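It is worth pausing here to work through a concrete case rather than discussing structure prediction in the abstract. The textbook approach is simple: state the sequence, then state the predicted structure, then interpret. We follow exactly that order.
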Amino acid sequence: MTHSKRGAIALMITLFFIIAISISLGIALKQVKSVSTEISKQKFAMQSSILVDDVLNLLKTSPDLEAINSVDTLFIFLSEAAFIPFESSGVKMLIEIKSARSKLNINTLVDIKGSALVPNPAKVEALSQYMAHYNVNPSYTDMIVDSMSKIKADNSYYSDIFNENPYLFRDYIASRKHLETINDFYAKTYNENTLQKINFEKLFSFSKQRDSKIDLNYATKETWRLLLGCDELRAEQLSLGAGAYAVEADLGLAPEEILALHRFNVAYLEMFLDVKVTIQSAHLSSELRFEYDMNKKKGSNFVYEI
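Step two, the predicted structure:
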């Protein structure tokens, strides 16, 4: 099949999907309006959760999404369906759909070996080098590793982050807010603001699945800089090739860049969506984010804020 035909099919899939989701959610938004103006924040949260369930069910039952099975069709779908806005009865809803594999899953810095969690030396070193570009103290990487190493009976952590935060979750880094707690501790400890220069939103994702890969067709500039230890110009060049990578040779990497890349688990077609749903009425707003596995038709890593 030619590239143009694949593109046409993907665009048709996108249009059908948006039409289907528009019809279903238009009715649901009216229900959100009826409760949000009359009852409490708790009820709004519950109604928002139900609305998100509707989004998830639409993803699960959409036959159009099943036709997406190549680098071309996935890339065009994500390009066309990145932002889907709705509005009904004064309630606004925005669905953002992106690749869930465009960034480094921060929890892959630690490997599972038997019943133990062990820092991956190559990945940890890559993070340390990346942070060094921003003059971040090497102890920051220690804090990150400690925060995904579970409870240690002998208290053999690399940093003292848990002395001040004894109840901080430490099985894995669960969310952006969790990372911000670590960042705040670092800033307070060293009395510096170097971390503010880093775009963590474009650098890290947060999944407890430690075997997740990075889809190089969607890798952000920040991710490329971390993967290869390259400068911003080189990272931008590679990110502009998005959608054209099927094998390693397509990347056009130098030998030393290939060696750097091999420190990480990468792929060229990862069927995982990052779905963000924002709902806003006159007085209340909520946001829910989750990862959707297109092959298993399953949502995971739900993070809810109101």
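Step three, interpretation. The first strand starts at residue 83 and ends at 88. The mean pLDDT is 84.
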